[in-house]
Amino acid sequence: MRKIFLTWFAFSFAVTAQLFGQAASPAVGKVFGWRVKSPSTTAYLVGSIHLAKPDLYPLNPRIESAFGDSGALVVEVDVTQQGGELVQQVMAKASYPPGEDITQHVSKEVLQRADTQLQKSGLGVPMFAQFKPWFLAQTVLLMELQRLGFSPTNGIDVYFLRKAKGQKKIMELETAASQIDLLNSFSDREQELFLLYTIKDIDNTEKNVNEILASWKQGDAQRMEKFLTASVNDMPELRAVYGKLVDDRNESMAKRIDGFLKTQGTYFIIVGSAHLVGEKGLLNLLKRAGYSVEPL
Fold it and tell me: Could you give the CA distance from residue 195 to residue 106 in angstroms, rounded to a whole number?
């Protein structure tokens, strides 16, 4: 069940998190960041927490120093440039065409469970009947995260985007449209499973938050990977979804970063933390491409 939570918290899409709108890291010990070097270029890879609390800050000085040394900031998507256009894009893709609604695509049992969860916030499935299950799933989880005090305005990527405005070149690894299209590409069955497992695991949100944050604050990639691996094993029905959400995107991101490393300059790259770890994570992909990868 933990995989669904991890999807939205540790490597959640920047664009979907932006729709809803822990003690500070010590100066010693590990951080969740790495230095990747080519003969001409240095790229700093830092894991993001897309939704956070104000007390995540200040960040470790080594992360701030890497940002200061970089000439360009690279994010998944620059959500600060999207505004109302982003909301319109998401709503258009998340909505069924006229004459259709969620009751025609999701079982009554799953809808009832979703309705029970939404009613805790004074809402209900009928208010979201026009929207697809992937959007309803993210709504349920993001509402719970906000109830716990987490917000995208305190996310690490947004924090550095604000610092970079007018000071550094800002580049993107993906586009808002590509992220939305990916979510919208899942079959009815995949979306129903996505919604079901999100609801099933919603009561574990706080526990899962604490595990993700502990891994991040300690710079513990192995702990993050172990959590992710256990999550995937918990729900084999969603392996195909996981492959699209993570593995395929990692391959695409690695190619973009490879392009940066063939230029001259210094890049500060922020991606959802879980994109960095694992056999098919960015760190391993870049190592296999022949680059030097070492902790900050």
Answer: 9
